TrEMBL record:
Residues 239-445 form the Metalloprotease TldD/E C-terminal domain. It comes from the Bacteria. InterPro entries: Metalloprtase-TldD/E_C, Metalloprtase-TldD/E_cen_dom, Metalloprtase-TldD/E_N, PmbA, TldD/PmbA_N, TldD/PmbA_sf. Residues 124-230 form the Metalloprotease TldD/E central domain. This is Metalloprotease PmbA. Its EC number is 3.4.24.-. Residues 32-93 form the Metalloprotease TldD/E N-terminal domain. It comes from Shewanella surugensis. The keyword Protease applies. SUPFAM superfamilies: Putative modulator of DNA gyrase, PmbA/TldD. GO terms for molecular function: metallopeptidase activity.
Amino acid sequence: MSSSSIDIELAPLKNAVSMALEYAASLGSSAAEVAISKQQGLSVSTRLKEVETVEFNKDGALGITLYRGGCKGSSSTSDLSPEAIKEAVKAADGIARFTSEDTFSGLADKERMAAEFRDLELYYPEEVTPEALAKLAIRAETAALEADKQIKTSDGANVNAHTGFKVYGNSHGFLQGEASSRYSLSCVVIAEAEDKMQRDYDYTVARQFDALVSPEIIGQKAAEKTVDRLYARKMATIKLPILFSPEIATGLMGHLVGAISGGSLYRNSSFLQDALDTDIFPEWFSIAEQPHLLGGLSSANFDSEGVATVDRKIIDNGRLASYLLTSYSARKLGMTNTGHAGGIYNWTLSDTGQTFSQLIKEMNTGLLITEVMGQGVNGVTGDYSRGAAGFYVENGVILYPVEEITIAGNLKDMYKNMVAVAKDRDLRSSIRTGGILLSDMTVAGN
């Protein structure tokens, strides 16, 4: 869609935000910020090649936060009529008059507002019908069911097509909007052999509908992953090198996101408290944040407070180079806002040059982890203990699948003991990484 067409879509949303800000000012507020979103999407799921559900959603909502000095009130409305917007502003003002003062609250500083607005190529609307999406899901299921005789049934396939617009404005005079699209396809199957059953899946996600991996490939991969898990064994307790598959490696780095986020830090609830500018990873390892990647799944010109996003090193040659701070957490910590209200932006992990297959060989004897379960991660101490499944590797060769094990360690040690990162990255999330090899972890089994 052309930029002029996007502007036409954003215009009524910007008008609604402007109206709310003007009304907030007329009530005598010291500052206000307003966010509005409009989304629509179509989701189709199938099971055993029959359509199971078709869901269409189209909704929007406006949220306002109004400040009276250090006192704030917030309210929201899904009714975007002028009368409803005014009522929402009145409600926020009423709350602000009765809340306690917090000297750290307020808008992000005016000088940090974004001033450049690149076309990040995030919006590719596609006219799709339930019938067309159902065909894709059925193709994925068909490919999976035909891939191996041990695939006994499908647990379903799902296709989603979503587009959305968002606008943010505040009393600094900032008023900007962005459009985005996202499409996805997934397939889940069940394999059975000798009264043993296993379940696994595969998926694809993209900004452009035509960039999705073909349903046949998704179905075949789902089947292969599921069949590979058959005849899984248990293990005795032992200490071994651990190789996290790319999908699981993203979660390992997700714990870093929580540990260096301002909310955890000012509450003194992070295992990386006071770790800024210290070495927490090996010297060869870095993480670059790239908010302006064209078509990136987590690209944005500004965060949810209007603060400009910038390229930055999160980890620089092993050193923690940046926390993730909003305006509130930055003030609480006496630091500078980093523009992370709303999340992170396309973290790309450095690699050590090997492919994932090469890392399996280099590990020699150890465990390849392809699934983790449970919530056994303590964000305060960094203690890590999770149920897991994967494959036992000996002499660089995958021998057999394993299940009903627990892998345990401490995230500080796990980060320090990273041996390698594969160069073939998984690009399906905001953390873009290959498989991660750790020198060792405790594996608890029988």
